[in-house]
Amino acid sequence: MSEPVITTEDTSLWQALLGDGAPNWQRDGTNWPNRAASRFIEAGGLRFHVQIMGKGPVALLLHGTGAATHSWRDLAPALAADFTVVAPDLPGHGFTETPVWPRMSLPGMAGAVASLIEVLDIAPALIIGHSAGAAIGIDLCRSGQVAPSGLVSLNGALLPYRGNLTKVFSPIAKMFAMNPLVPRLFAWRAKNPSIVRRLLAGTGSKIDAAGEAHYATLVRRSGHAAAALTMMANWDLDPIEANLPNLTPRLLLVTGANDRSIPPREAERIARIVPGARLVSMPGLGHLAHEEAPAETAAIIAEFAREIGVLGA
């Protein structure tokens, strides 16, 4: 009886099923953007990767689901001209450790960030959140863990999905997140460059090759993919929506007019709900508008900071 022939594809699939773990700083962080600003800090039982740069009022940057500090690669240095920029990788993302399942929820993530803020002994004057990061920023304010003067939502994911299939998709998302094979297979599929390119194109944004390469580095690690899936499975935006009319910090809503991930009309609705909220639309840009036009985004944020007294006139 002849021996079975094992192909390269079979070997790759088997490696995918075994998994390749979380991103590793020594392996995956050698060319990480703004690496000189990186440090690792123990807080809330986790080892955080955080980047700190600049001088001035503290601006806390919170990235979205599936991203990491690379998302701020050009915006953070631009903001550092006016602010002390503090940008962590969220729990389970990038080079920050993954907590237990229940802490990958909105209050769990906000609590972890609050622990980091306490250890760093900072008082953010401004919170800048992209997508789900904006929701984490609002939850930090809602719980009284921080009291910034302003909150900037960059294409923020702040409203729950109200479609008829919500009750179906939520259990499915939890099932996928709990199955260890799903993120491993996703990471394996992401080794095909066209898959990553398609995912990014689906946001309505066109980012540079360097940005695309950093996203590819992350999603090809099963640990990062698993954290993103777990975060989505545990997410509940109902408390955020209910608290929007009571939001204390001034709110700036920045949207990419071509955002295919979060409809810009959601920001228009939020602007009507939150007293004093201001809305700025960036024509021709998508969900990753801050990566497509970092200088323009930084200018919008600086103008808002001056308007609310965080920066001098």
Considering the chains and any ligands shown, give keywords for the structure.
313 residues; alpha/beta; Rossmann fold; 8-stranded mixed sheet; 14 helices; 15% strand
Record the SSE blueprint:
Elements: H1 8-18, H2 25-28, E1 38-43, E2 46-53, E3 58-62, H3 75-79, E4 84-88, H4 106-120, E5 126-130, H5 132-142, E6 150-154, H6 166-178, H7 181-189, H8 193-201, H9 209-219, H10 222-234, H11 238-243, E7 250-256, H12 264-273, E8 278-282, H13 289-292, H14 294-307
Parallel strand pairs: 3-4, 3-5, 5-6, 6-7, 7-8
Antiparallel strand pairs: 1-2, 2-4
Helix pairs in contact: 1-7, 4-5, 6-10, 7-10, 8-9
Broad CATH class: Alpha Beta
Classify the fold: give the CATH topology.
Rossmann fold
> Kindly state the mean pLDDT as a whole number?
88
**Overall SS class:** alpha/beta
Q: What is the total tally of β strands?
A: 8
SSE topology string: HHEEEHEHEHEHHHHHHEHEHH
Beta-strand content bin: 5-15%
CATH architecture, by name, is: 3-Layer(aba) Sandwich
Q: Would you write up a description of this structure?
A:
The protein is an alpha/beta fold and 313 residues long. It has one domain: Alpha/Beta hydrolase fold, catalytic domain (Rossmann fold). It is 43% helix and 15% strand. The chain has 14 helices and eight strands. The protein has an eight-stranded mixed β-sheet with strand order 1-2-4-3-5-6-7-8, with helices on both faces. Helix 6 (166-178) runs antiparallel to helix 10 (222-234), helix 7 packs across helix 10 and helix 8 crosses helix 9. The longest helix is centred in the middle third of the chain and has 15 residues, at 106-120. 47% of the residues are buried. Mean pLDDT is 88; it is low at 1-19 and 164-169.
